[in-house]
């Protein structure tokens, strides 16, 4: 219910932007953090076009891409001021906000093909496992993606018990982290865990891996055959994660970058799809308040 209320809140362009004004010529290098969860080679390849566009548009001498080994690497980079920009999940943004509410500002979020600004955590199992619903997985192994993932940890941690009636560590024989969404999905596909939780738009056809999310990425790469998998659980709608900008670079850059990304789906649709990993309608302005429900849930469930 909290997620639905968050998603129904009005999203306005006039975000509360803080920080010292900075002129374009003051920023020679632009540093982008890329969340862990997919192999490094794919992440660097997918973000290469974005780095090129940013250099051309703003005249940066260098655009540096930092594909962190895990989500926390990007979170710490933003908190420590060694990264200027990143796209976070809602729980990752909550982690930054809890530690320092003034560290970053969310400027935009993705918009699904149906116009919504939310997505789902889904539970996937092999079809030959005999698991058809999450109730069938009692006494089995549940795979999580990353401790700072929204759909890969926070949401299934708090929402699966509402279906099973038991905490996950009591319902399942074992729960384990598998080093990001890609590794987690592949762990289920290879039979190393019985159910894996994954991020997904939940829109479109299952046979395509839906329209976006890690499942879609793995289907597009030919890494998994969706006919061998089955969806056994789906969460309530989750707020799409934000594109965040470090406040220290100034509110002039917040506006410049928001404008740049709003235009990206039109200026280079293939680049936009590569960065976001699937089919989206575009970006939409977002306010920090959009994530209040997730911040509260994270505080109560796992702390900072």
UniProtKB/TrEMBL annotation:
<keyword id="KW-0732">Signal</keyword>
<comment type="similarity">
    <text>Belongs to the phosphate/phosphite/phosphonate binding protein family.</text>
</comment>
<dbReference type="InterPro" id="IPR017797">
    <property type="entry name" value="Phosphnate-bd"/>
</dbReference>
<dbReference type="GO" id="GO:0055085">
    <property type="term" value="P:transmembrane transport"/>
</dbReference>
<dbReference type="GO" id="GO:0015716">
    <property type="term" value="P:organic phosphonate transport"/>
</dbReference>
<feature type="signal peptide">
    <location>
        <begin position="1"/>
        <end position="24"/>
    </location>
</feature>
<dbReference type="Pfam" id="PF12974">
    <property type="entry name" value="Phosphonate-bd"/>
</dbReference>
<dbReference type="InterPro" id="IPR005770">
    <property type="entry name" value="PhnD"/>
</dbReference>
<protein>
    <submittedName>
        <fullName>Phosphonate transport system substrate-binding protein</fullName>
    </submittedName>
</protein>
<dbReference type="GO" id="GO:0043190">
    <property type="term" value="C:ATP-binding cassette (ABC) transporter complex"/>
</dbReference>
């Amino acid at each position: 219910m909290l997620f639905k209320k968050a998603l129904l809140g009005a999203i306005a362009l006039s975000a509360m932007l803080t920080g010292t004004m900075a002129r374009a010529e003051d920023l020679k290098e632009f540093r982008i953090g890329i969340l862990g969860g997919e192999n490094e080679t794919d992440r660097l390849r997918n973000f290469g076009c974005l780095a090129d566009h940013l250099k051309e548009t703003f005249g940066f001498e260098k655009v540096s891409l930092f594909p962190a080994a895990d989500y926390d690497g990007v979170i710490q980079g933003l908190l420590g001021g060694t990264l200027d920009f990143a796209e976070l999940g809602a729980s990752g943004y909550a982690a930054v906000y809890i530690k320092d509410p003034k560290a970053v500002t969310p400027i935009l979020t993705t918009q699904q093909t149906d116009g919504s600004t939310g997505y789902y955590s889904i539970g996937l199992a092999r079809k030959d496992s005999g698991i058809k619903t999450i109730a069938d997985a009692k006494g089995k192994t549940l795979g999580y993606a990353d401790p700072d993932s929204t759909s890969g940890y926070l949401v299934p941690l708090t929402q699966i018990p509402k279906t099973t009636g038991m905490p996950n560590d009591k319902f399942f024989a074992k729960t384990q982290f598998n080093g990001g969404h890609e590794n987690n999905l592949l762990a289920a596909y290879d039979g190393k865990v019985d159910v894996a939780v994954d991020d997904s738009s939940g829109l479109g056809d299952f046979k395509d891996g839906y329209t976006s999310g890690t499942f879609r990425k793995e289907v597009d790469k030919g890494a998994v055959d969706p006919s061998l998998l089955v969806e056994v659980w789906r969460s309530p709608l989750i707020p799409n994660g934000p594109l965040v900008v470090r406040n220290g670079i100034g509110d002039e850059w917040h506006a410049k970058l928001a404008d740049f990304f709003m235009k990206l789906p039109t200026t280079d649709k293939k680049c936009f799809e590569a960065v976001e990993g699937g089919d989206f309608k575009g970006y939409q302005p977002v306010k920090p308040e959009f994530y209040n429900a997730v911040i509260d849930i994270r505080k109560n469930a796992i702390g900072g």
